[in-house]
Design brief:
233 residues, Alpha-Beta Plaits, 7 helices, 12 strands
Length: 233
């Protein structure tokens, strides 16, 4: 579970909790001892609204039932369009929990979104992610029609003062943004031990604040143990 302050002054995304499946139930664990938790609290985080207070580290009751309200009902006429938008048209029977992770389950204004922990997933897999900071880099100087469907390259930036795991995203020599901070450790490992294919799959939002999404395909190259070693697990 990711939280980003809805106020314009702070756009950092913080990993504040995890949804864990145990049998048929889903629990929410708050990461209260992490640096991300401290940063989120300093920027106004006070738990998932009206449901899971931060006074408890773990919540078991009705977790999936509450969070899946962020998804459109499956009987809605535009549910197929929702699947298509998230690259899931070939998987209409996807579970609610997986759909929350793949789609992000965002709502306007509350700052919450959700991501799958791909470090524990079996390859091969594919997913969409939003390019961080697109409008601050040279991507804004490239016409949209020249960005869409273009292959992107990942270039680690270990000297980055804010995050040694930072990874630049480039089209040719043009820097169009960065890998989201929560994905960067995985992609750094995959660059060493997996086969990656990535391209700009869609662009949303107004021209002044475009949201650019990369479609990333990850395939096994070496063993799962090698990947785990690269992730420091």
């Amino acid at each position: 579970m990711i939280w980003q302050s809805p106020y314009a002054g702070e756009r950092t995304k913080f990993h504040v909790g995890d949804l864990i499946r145990a049998g048929s139930q889903v629990a929410l664990y708050y990461n209260r001892n992490s640096a991300d938790w401290i940063g989120a609290v300093q920027n106004g985080f006070n738990g998932y609204p009206a449901a899971f207070p931060v006074t408890s580290v773990v919540h078991h009751d009705n977790v999936l039932e509450i969070i899946r309200r962020r998804l459109p009902p499956r009987n809605r006429s535009d549910f197929g369009a929702f699947l298509y938008k998230n690259g899931l048209s070939n998987n209409p029977m996807i579970s609610d929990l997986a759909l929350i992770g793949y789609s992000g389950a965002r709502l306007p204004g509350d700052g919450f979104s959700f991501e799958i922990d791909y470090s524990i997933e079996e390859m091969p897999f594919e997913f969409l992610f939003e390019v961080s900071g697109f409008r601050y880099y040279s991507g804004m100087n490239i016409p949209v029609e020249a960005v869409l469907d273009r292959q992107v390259l990942f270039q680690p930036e270990p000297s980055n003062a804010h995050d040694p795991n930072a990874i630049m995203i480039k089209i040719g020599d043009a820097l169009i943004g960065y890998v989201p901070r929560s994905h960067a450790p995985w992609i750094n490992a995959w660059l060493q031990f997996a086969r990656l294919g990535a391209w700009v799959a869609k662009i949303e939002g107004p021209p002044s604040r475009p949201l650019v999404y990369v479609y990333l395909a990850v395939a096994r190259q070496l063993t799962h143990q090698s990947i785990s070693h690269a992730l420091g697990r």
